[in-house]
From TrEMBL:
Coiled coil: none
Gene Ontology BP term (one): spindle assembly
Record-given protein name: Uncharacterized protein
Organism placement in taxonomy: Eukaryota, Viridiplantae, Streptophyta, Embryophyta, Tracheophyta
GO CC field: cytoplasm; nuclear microtubule
Superkingdom in the source lineage: Eukaryota
A molecular function GO annotation: microtubule binding
Family: Belongs to the QWRF family.
Record Pfam families: QWRF (PF04484)
Amino acid sequence: MDYNNSLSGAIGALKASTLRLPVSGGARGDAHAVKHAISSAVDVMQVMGSSICNLLSKVESTGVLVSELAAVAAKERAMLDECRELLASTTGMQVQEYSLRTQLIQLKQRDRKVL
């Protein structure tokens, strides 16, 4: 937001320094002052251009990082879903193991009674 305000202020200053030149009614202007105003405006635009290029490269690199982060988050989500499924199946297998152990114990006890 600060960059937006700065850019708006710079645009306003450039307009003010170039649009106030009298061009009618036989008015005369100081060529040196006009040259200085335009030169200053060009300098400001060059600085703004450099700043915008710098910000653009930062935005582009941030965009790449955000894309990579989104891909990692999607992979993590898939892995968490897989873990949830594995835990559910492990719980089922554990219940089945307990049941089989119980049946084995019961069979051993029955065999001892028969002997």
